[in-house]
Amino acid sequence: MAMKEGNLEAPQRQPIDWRGPDFYDKDSLDTELARVFDICHGCRRCVSLCNAFPTLFDLVDESETLEVDGVDVADYTKVVDQCYLCDLCYMTKCPYVPPHEWNVDFPHLMLRAKAVKFKKGDTKYRDNLITSTDMIGKVASMPVVNTLVNYASKNGVARKLLDKTLGIHQHAWLPEYTNKPARKQHAALIFDGSSTAAVSTIGTTTDNTTGSEPTEKVTLFTTCYCNYNEPSIVDDVIKILQHNNVQVELAAREYCCGMPKLELGDLKTVTLLKEKNIPALYETVCAGNVIIAAVPSCVLMFKQELPLMFPDDERVSAVANAFFDPFEYLHRLYKQGKLNTSFKNPLGNVSYHVACHQRVQNIGPKTKQILELIPDTSVKSIERCSGHDGTYGMKSETLQFANKIVKPIVRQIQQQQPDFFGSDCPIAGKHIANNLDSEQDAIHPLGLLCKAYGI
Q1: Which of 278, 311, 333 finishes a domain?
Q2: For the segment 232-274, what is each residue's pLDDT rounded down to a tens digit?
Q3: Is 374 in the same domain as 312?
Q4: Are residues 186 and 326 located together in one domain of the fold?
């Protein structure tokens, strides 16, 4: 039987065998890297996605044989370091993913290589630090420390020092930290097993509130970023859901989703975070709640990566099945006839960046579809990677590539000259804004929806 070229079937993700005997074996890893790199070299469809593929192809083209066998195995790590697990190659480009017999899963092979590298202790102190987002948030939100951190992030001398000592690029956008984390502001909403609907301090009387009990219950996973850096996004989620007669609760306990540590290859910490998060989230699922988070990477972590790492954990599966992107959930309300469509303000011309980790969830253009329900509003989607990743766009050695990757998005926004622009990924939105020669700032689509509602 002849081997078929390409694949027209839907991608099928295989569980990550990270506990298997060969996963951390360096020789086994190098053999698999050579096999997959050779397939990629013969295809080259993904050259425009990120810098991992140009790095690989340059290594091949500059070798003596012009093939993968001419590349020094020690240089494989140069490719691995450029991959930030956006997953676009797997879900949108590669014709050789399972069920194709070549069984190419480039992102999870990069994950394996990162895990081997981490286990050997070859990761930088900086990378261990900046992926500890929960810990940094807790410290940076403390009184006095909060003021110092925010001052340093805007001070030229301090930024040059960070560049030289830690490798945080002096021109990279860095988020401010709040001294009032979202979970503290909305402590009244923390889940306690009661059926009584808590009311947030930002709750308002809405057009469709009838005084009856809410028909839906949602657990909001606030995420490290929205909790410590941009709590206004949490405010927006709560306002929108309460405006649609949805009861909002926060999990009894919340920790980092684990995506930053996954991208580092620190699977031990990913496991520890999973063991902290899943029981609290599972408790709310058992109470009939669905779960949403306003950062696509966090949603993807619970929807895809944890189930692939722990395929036999029923609680992980239950949480994954209950997890929704915010606009995916709002679109479900709309299809059920439950979404409040009494919009007060048009948005005009909107330029909307579709975050990579939302695209690969395969939920469709739900954000665009909801925003286009607003009268006198047109939405242009931009389906290109922003190149930030959360940490890649901060590092001294990779900011130049992050800025190069974001250029097509910046160019399209400049050509469109929209009334508003933004991304489902708030960090991507800030990275785009940092590269725009404009005073206009990114607004999260949830913020745009609040504008349209007039809340």
Answers
A1: 333
A2: 999 999 999 999 999 999 999 999 999 999 999 999 999 999 9
A3: no
A4: yes
| Alpha carbon 300 to its chain's center | 7
Q: What is the rounded end-to-end Cα distance, in angstroms, of the chain?
A: 63
Q: What's the pLDDT at 282?
A: 97
**Degrees, nearest 5: CA angle 253-258-261:** 140
> Cα separation of 254 and 277, whole Å?
6
Three-state DSSP class for residue 420: strand
Q: Which of 420, 359, 431 is nearest to 390 (CA)?
A: 431
Examine the domain organization and report whether 198 and 59 are in the same domain.
Answer: no
Tally the domains of the chain.
3
Task: For residue 285, give its domain range.
Answer: 182-333
Q: In terms of C-beta density within 10 A (0-12 exposed, 13-18 middle, 19 or more buried), how is residue 40 classed?
A: buried
Q: Which two tokens stand for residue 400?
A: 């130049």
> Alpha-carbon distance 300 to 283, whole Å?
20
- Regarding beta strands 290-292 and 323-324, do their DSSP bridges make them parallel or antiparallel, or are they unpaired? parallel
Report whether pLDDT(72) > 90.
yes
Query: Is the model's pLDDT at 443 over the cut of 60?
Result: yes
pTM of the model: 0.91
Per-residue model confidence (pLDDT) at position 389: 85
